[in-house]
Amino acid sequence: MTERTRVAIVGAGPAGLMLAHLLDHAGIESIVLDSRTRHEIETTVRAGILEQNTVEILRQTGASDRVDTVGSRHDGIELRFDGAGHRIDFADLVGRGVWLYPQHEVLKDLIAARLAAGQDLRFSTRADEVVDIDSDRPRVLGTGPDGEAIEIEADFVVGAEGSRSITRDAVTGAHGGFFREYPFAWFGVLCEAPPSADELIYSNSPEGFALISQRSPEVQRMYFQCDPDQDPDAYTEAQLWDMLQARVPGTTLQEGSIFQRDVLRFRSFVAHRLLRGRAAIVGDAAHTVPPTGAKGMNLAIADVVVLARALERLLLGGSAELLESFEETALARIWKAQHFSWWMTSMLHRAPDASDFDNRRQLGELRSVVESRNGRGFLAEAYTGWPLPV
Ligand code: PHB
Predict the structure, then answer these.
(1) Domain range spanning residue 135?
(2) 383 catalytic, yes or no?
(3) pTM above the 0.90 mark?
(4) Ligand 1: lining residues by beta carbon, under 6 Å
(5) pLDDT by residue (tens digit) across 88-125?
(6) Could you tell me if 220 and 112 lie in one domain?
(7) How many helices (H) and strands (E) does the chain have?
């Protein structure tokens, strides 16, 4: 049996759920599908930093009041290199901040809001194919929790299902995207310990990069640069602490039991097309950034703010004008975020084949940033998030 909705959204991550939430506010019905269970979505640990814009949208649309109680505002970060720490004071430089509020908490809020509003959200439901996007009746063909075939016909289909997007295949066809790999990855750990510092520390050290981040007063998230093929189980906890500690000279890390470890590969990707006919891709389905600079989830939210307005105009106002400019508007921000993520990554990491020249040039670059108010301001503006289009 074919079901009908106005917008079929593939993927219940930050992009898909936020889009559904914004559409619901505008009175537009949608169905959200995700192949994962609710438990998987709510417990997978991902990013941790929200731009001020993202927080404002969560608050204004009533999606989360916990961002201010469970989350915490950070008014700066520290860049550490060559034996010294340098604070980038966001509040002073740009009058803005970021919030430490883990992605899975955002997802819990958005799932709760959607279910409380009685809206259609289906877990363990896989989208297999998106078809007929060049007609005004695009469809999603998929498989439900009991293996049953499902078919949803909509006015518009949105692929928000992350980097293994099937909607992207329909939108880009053979076109693919712009792609870059990096010769390193992050070794991430979650540990039970108090915070080692008040703010996040991004450290460029002779041993490579490390990031000291946080999750809560009791749980901390830390990363150090490693080989992309690193086996996460190759080190003992004591070795991991030694490696982390060696990369943040000047700070004594608060050690505790490491209960999760993972290796995150770095990629930069932007799809050649974000829109075709009656289908669009957003978030990681459309682009990937390396994690340095914490842009991934924020960029996903920015995409859907632009798309929600375009869909509202199309489906309620009968005009495709904003949809026609969606790709250009979204790509302008996406490429700025690509640049920022690449820049933070290349400035802070040590490439395996880096020469002495490269290493010294990198320290010169870091000094140019921290010793100049304009340099710090550039970083602060990007990190806290550029304004969303009004
Ligand atoms: C994190 O806490 O996971 C995190 C924070 C800042 C980043 C990247 C990741 O730049």
Answers:
(1) 2-72+99-179+268-348
(2) yes
(3) yes
(4) 47-49, 200, 211, 213, 221, 291-294
(5) 999 999 999 999 999 999 999 999 999 999 999 999 99
(6) no
(7) 11, 21
